[in-house]
Amino acid sequence: NAGVTQTPKFQVLKTGQSMTLQCAQDMNHNSMYWYRQDPGMGLRLIYYSASEGTTDKGEVPNGYNVSRLNKREFSLRLESAAPSQTSVYFCASRTHGGTKNYGYTFGSGTRLTVV
Amino acid sequence: GNSVTQMEGPVTLSEEAFLTINCTYTATGYPSLFWYVQYPGEGLQLLLKATKADDKGSNKGFEATYRKETTSFHLEKGSVQVSDSAVYFCALTTNSGAGSYQLTFGKGTKLSVIP
After folding, report:
1. What is the pLDDT of residues A66-106, one digit of tens each?
2. For A1-115, where are the E strands, in sequence order?
3. Quick one: pLDDT at residue B81?
4. pLDDT tier for residue A51 given thresholds of 50, 70 and 90
C-alpha cells in the first residue's frame, strides 16, 4: 500500500534549469495538491486538481506549472528554476465525499535546492 | 479568506510534562479542523481532527476541542514523551468550490522533548 509516492526525494538545480516533480497515488483519490514548505511559513498551496482534467492555482503559483496526467498522477514543473524556489515540496491527495472526513494523504516530500 | 495562527516555537519540554499548543483560526463558512504532525525527514501525518463545534479529536494521548465561540483548536497532551518530538501543524479546510477542500496550514510549532 504505497499511498502517495513522490520522486525524486532530493534534487539540486542550477538557476534557470527546468525539472518536473512527479507524484502518483494509488488510492483512487479524486483531488490532488502540491504544497511547498518553507521555514517559518508552514505549508502553502501551489496548485491543485479537484478532479481529473482540471487544475487551479493556489496561494503561490508563480513560476510553476502542473499537469494532471490521469487520475493517479499530478506533476509539478519548474520551467526556469530560481533560488526562491528552494523548498520542500509535498504532494497530497484526497477522495471526494459528501462528508467532512477529508482524508488527506501526504507524500514524503521532495527537497529541492536551487543554486 | 481562511487563516490559521498557532503559537510560535520552538517549544522544549521535559518528558512527562504537560503540552499545550495554541491554535486559532478565521474562516469563511464552517471549517473542519485538523492537527498534523511531521517527524524529522518525513511527510505530514494526520494526528486528529474535528468536524463540528464542540467535537473533541483525540489520538495517541493528544486531544483538541473545536471551540467555535473562541475560534480555537488547541492541542493538548497530559504527559509528553521523547518520541513526540516533531513539528505540529494546525490546519483547516472549507469547501472552496468544485469540491476542492483546500487545506490552510498554520506555520507549525516545533516541539522538542528532553529526557
Report:
1. 999 899 999 999 999 999 999 999 999 987 655 455 668 89
2. 4-7, 10-13, 19-25, 31-38, 42-49, 56-57, 64-68, 74-78, 87-94, 105-106, 110-114
3. 97
4. confident
Q: Bridge partners of A10?
A: A111
Q: Check B107 against A45: CB less than 8 A apart.
A: no
For A5, phi and psi rounded to 5 degrees?
Answer: -115, 125
Task: Enter the C-alpha cell of residue B71.
Answer: 475560534
Contacts of A92 in chain B (CB under 8 A): 44, 103
Question: How far away is chain A from the Cα of B13, in angstroms, using its nearest Cα?
Answer: 20
- Pairing, β B11-14 against β B109-114: parallel
Q: Is A46 a residue whose pLDDT tops 60?
A: yes
